[in-house]
Amino acid sequence: MVLGVLRLPEKVVGRAVLEGVERAVDARWDLAVRRAAQTARRPHAHRIDELESAFLRELAAVGAASGGVAALPGAGTGTALAVAGADIGWYTMRLADLILTVAAVHGHQEPTVQERRAWVLSVLTFGSNAAGSLDQVAREVGKGLGARSIGSLSGANLTVVNRNLTTRLIRRYGIRRGAAAFGKLLPFGIGAVIGGVGNAAGVRAVARDADQFFGALAVTA
To answer: Does the predicted model carry a pTM greater than 0.85?
Structure first.
């Protein structure tokens, strides 16, 4: 495989990212609630730290294992692209799991699928500016309703918000994740290092950003 000419097609990256998000928001809220309940009696900061540590161990290890696929005998461009696409989707799903678990730690209960989708899209797209950026998008679409009352948006308006966020997600998070997945394809152990370090850095950032994000949102029962 010639790394100099290999690029991850935007469609591959976009599809993998969206599939990862959808798997989490559609069917993994109950898992997030159960995960959050395991630390229910501990101080909030400790709960977030424990979540971050647990996801760090898992995703850093998997990132290192999936890195360096280009160095495997017989691993051509097609194999590398397939592995990279699968890695992007799985990693995105696990980051979405982390975001949803932080939401549960903050006391959110029985959110709609559209609400969960807005949360995940916002944190992955905007990072530390997620609350303010979602607030702005929601105000534009929801005629004055901001992110702090996003649960009050109608289903139709929230769908439009999420459509807007999805486009931004592909442009921002998708580009970053595609570049990270490409870096994992470097041979001779370099890809493994990039994979482990990159995944760990992503978990730390998302845990911090999600905690900040949900701290800015109103909890609706």
So the answer is: no
pLDDT digits (tens, 9 = 90+) for 157-185: 788 889 989 988 888 876 666 555 544 54
118-153: burial string, b at 16+ Cβ within 10 Å, e else: bbbbbbbbbbeebbebbbebbeebbeebbbeebbeb
- Contact assessment for residue 204 and residue 53, using Cβ atoms and an 8 Å cutoff: no
Q: How far apart are CA 32 and CA 179, in angstroms?
A: 28
Neighbouring residues of 163: CB distance < 8 A, sequence distance ≥ 6: none
- Alpha-carbon distance of 37 to 157, in angstroms, equals 32
**DSSP designation for 64:** H
Round to whole Å and give the CA distance between 170 and 183. Answer: 18
